[in-house]
Design brief:
The structure holds two protein chains of two kinds. Chain A is α/β, with parallel strands linked by helices. Chain A contains nine helices and twelve strands. In chain A, strand 1 and strand 2 (13-20) form a beta hairpin. Chain A starts with a strand and ends in a 33-residue tail after the last helix. The mean pLDDT of chain A is 94. Chain B is an alpha+beta fold. In chain B, helix 3 (134-151) crosses helix 5 (173-186). The radius of gyration of chain B is 17 Å and the shape is globular. Chain B starts with 8 loop residues before the first strand and ends with a helix. Classes of the chains: A alpha/beta, B alpha+beta. The A-B interface holds A 144, 147, 149-151, 190, 192, 195, 198-200, 229-230, 233, 236-237, 240-241, 243-245, 265-267, 269-270, 273, 319, 321-322, 334-335 and B 6-8, 25-29, 31-32, 35-36, 106, 127, 129, 139, 146, 149-150, 186-190.
Chain lengths: 335, 190
């Protein structure tokens, strides 16, 4: 049995967890909530710095209280990127200190792959096309020939960011996504808005601006509804193309925006029509969480991947398709 | 018969014509769904005609309805089955002309090229768009090279032959081919 402690802190959630192959043993989370507006990178990093030692102490206490000893911990994993630079550096510093004091190796985890792997762990999905949607990221990923390839992604901002930006303009508080979803349910009309899919990529910044503009002539409810309909249809279309292209038969939804029920409904309909299976992990594993970093770190550690302290610098634009997926072995796959 | 249906459209043969029908998607609101299918049907037909004007052989369009294109059936073989270096050079010249005309095909594979009467016809413009950037051209060719690499064992020679043809019909060919190498390194699946 391998045990890994993982720390996530790429954006507004500071979360640490200890997992083994079977389950999450302990998890502690502190969330940064801006008083006004969206996430301020410096404030978020200060929040993480303020709470880091406290979160780790509480985590280790919870672990001990469950009858385990910290000596069982085999490695320390941390989210190396992508994310806000200041937040990443804060978390990396804690992870290095912890690895040195426990005298165990460090593992640098790609945040996007963390979302994918916890989904594969906590749902029956084996080899899915993954739609990963959060504030900063929007990607369609699938495993092929030793890497998680990006089949489609946003050309500008993440879908969550687009929703938040529009919501702030409409006078709604952060995070805007859940509020947009609520208003959308009360809509009576569909308003025409931009739909931008270029090849396998999508773009949201124009849609966000157009939605803000159309508030002048339409109700907030109708604009929220139409914004969602267009944005989600773009995501579902590219996911369907990736399914057709790869010949895979599973879809996994990951990331905080995956909590949206309309997005789930649309993906479900698409999968039904194609005869594919659709999987959504429970909510605690959808948004950013320490367990996904710990578990992905465990997979990497068990397949021989660790990170020397001297080369453990963070990478704010760390791409998932640069990581060698050493923990999945299937030589049958061909390009 | 080489006709194949994709995620977006159903393709069939009727009275000697190829019928490409964009099917409704239940996950989209009807109004949006119709708009997208109509716009794309029209865009595809237009780009096929534009490509022919650039000297790229494409099936002649017989009729267009809201979501349907009726076009000529090219009686030939997918290039996939008859590929050699001569064919690849011809392919290179063809794509060079398409790119010179500012059109990106978006799904260049050896299944989307039909060899007939000593000519290569380019089919399936469902993902095509207008763009003259080095990046878009590079991605277009990167997709084709990947197909060659995964399906033909002498792909290195084939890629060289393609490049020779591509340089004949496109002025900035070398810049694009350099970009292809860079895109390969990125490991990005386009």
């Amino acid at each position: 049995m391998t045990t890994v402690l993982g720390i996530e802190g790429t954006a507004w959630n500071l979360s640490a967890a200890i997992v083994d192959e079977d389950d999450v043993i302990a998890e502690v989370t502190e969330t940064y909530r801006p008083k006004t507006g969206g996430i301020h990178p410096r404030e978020a990093a200060q929040h993480h710095a303020l709470h880091a030692s406290n979160v780790i102490e509480r985590l280790l206490k919870e672990y001990r209280d469950k009858g385990h000893s910290p000596e069982n911990i085999d490695a320390i994993a941390f989210s190396q990127g992508p994310g806000l630079g200041a937040c990443l550096r804060t978390v990396a510093t804690s992870a290095r200190a912890l690895a040195l004091s426990l005298d165990v190796p460090l593992v640098g985890v790609n945040h996007c792959i963390g979302h994918v792997e916890i989904g594969r762990w906590k749902t029956p999905a084996v080899d899915p096309v993954v739609l990963y949607v959060s504030g900063g990221n929007s990607q369609v990923l699938a495993h092929r020939a030793g890497k998680y390839r990006i089949f489609g992604e946003t050309l500008d901002i993440g879908i969550g960011n687009a929703l938040d930006k529009f919501a702030r303009g409409a006078g709604l508080t952060h995070p805007g996504g859940p509020k947009v979803e609520e208003y959308a349910r009360k809509a009576t009309n569909y308003v025409k808005m931009p739909y931008v899919v270029k090849g396998m990529d999508f773009s949201f910044s124009g849609l966000s601006t157009a939605a803000t503009d159309s508030l002048k002539d339409n109700s907030l409810e109708d604009v929220c509804y139409s914004f969602q309909e267009n944005a989600f249809a773009m995501l579902v279309e590219v996911t369907e193309r990736a399914l057709a292209h790869t010949g895979k038969s599973e879809v996994l939804l990951a990331g905080g925006v995956g909590a949206n029920m309309r997005l789930r409904e649309m993906l479900n309909v698409m999968c039904e029509d194609r005869g594919a299976s659709f999987y959504v992990p429970e909510k605690r594993f959808m948004g950013d969480n320490g367990a996904m970093i710990a578990y992905t770190g465990l997979l990497m550690f068990n397949s021989g991947t660790t990170l020397p302290i001297e080369s453990s610098h963070v990478d704010p634009s760390f791409r998932p398709d640069t990581v060698d997926v050493t923990w999945i072995i299937d030589e049958k796959e061909v390009l | 018969m080489y006709l194949q249906s994709g995620a977006e459209a159903v393709v069939s043969l009727k009275d000697g014509y190829v019928i490409k029908d964009r099917i409704p998607k239940r996950y989209r609101v009807a109004e949006l769904d119709e708009r997208i299918r109509k716009e794309r049907t029209r865009a595809e037909a237009r780009l096929m005609s534009d490509a022919r004007r650039c000297g790229v052989a494409t099936p002649i369009i017989h009729d267009i309805y809201d979501f349907t294109i009726e076009m000529e059936y090219i009686d030939g073989k997918p290039v996939k089955y008859v590929i050699d270096e001569t064919m690849c050079k011809l392919m290179g010249k063809l794509i060079g002309r398409l790119h010179s005309g500012g059109i990106i095909h978006g799904d260049l594979t050896t299944s989307n090229m039909i060899y007939s009467d000593d000519r290569i016809y380019l089919i399936d413009f469902g993902l095509a768009y207008v763009d003259g950037s080095v990046e878009s051209r590079g991605v277009d060719i990167h997709v084709l090279f990947q197909t060659l690499e995964s399906t033909h064992k002498d792909h290195e020679e084939l890629i060289k032959a393609f490049s020779r043809g591509y340089r004949i019909t496109l002025d900035m060919a070398d810049e694009v081919l350099d970009r292809v190498k860079e895109i390969e390194k990125r490991g990005r699946y386009a």
